[in-house]
Amino acid sequence: MKNQDFTTTILVDQTPKEAFDSINNVRGWWIDEIEGNSQNLNDEFAVRFGDVHYSKQKLIEVVPGKKIVWLVTDSRLNFLKDKSEWTNNQIVFDITEQDDKTQIRFTQLGLAPEVECYGDCSGAWNYYIQDSLFSLITTGKGKPERKKSVIIQ
Fold first, then answer.
1. Cβ within 8 Å of residue 62, ≥6 positions away
2. pLDDT tens digits, the chain, 153 residues: what are they?
3. Where are the domains of the chain?
4. Which pTM was predicted?
5. What distance in Å separates the CA atoms of residue 70 and residue 86, rounded to the nearest whole number?
6. CATH code at 6-10+19-140
7. Using CA atoms in the order 62, 26, 94, 97, what is the torsion angle rounded to 10 degrees?
């Protein structure tokens, strides 16, 4: 059976090192305020989108210019029946050279069509990877969620 985990890919003119450095700048493309660090092996960081989404990630694999893997160690997605649906998922960034370009393949292992969050979460990841991360890598300015603009009820 074909792997159904959510995957999206971008292709940029920048080097693998530039792509790697941008991915590790989580504040620059996902959400502008995180708790913790997102640079080195075993770093842990948490993100909050109001009272709707909380997740804590640990960097479990870091290969400069090639790969970054986050393990979701805790999650609370309040819009889902299973609020901890992301817990134990892995978020993988594979960086490869293709001709004279750099390809970044994003995969969330565990985010598959049969889980409740697939529709909303895959749509959000498409924005953050295809638009915000792509922009950060190619122009130096991403489009992260602004914590100040997240409505907390």
1. 40, 41, 68, 69
2. 456 999 999 999 999 999 999 999 999 999 998 999 999 999 999 999 999 999 999 999 999 999 999 999 999 999 999 999 999 999 999 999 999 999 999 999 999 999 999 999 999 999 999 999 999 999 999 999 987 544 443
3. 6-10+19-140
4. 0.93
5. 12
6. 3.30.530.20
7. -100
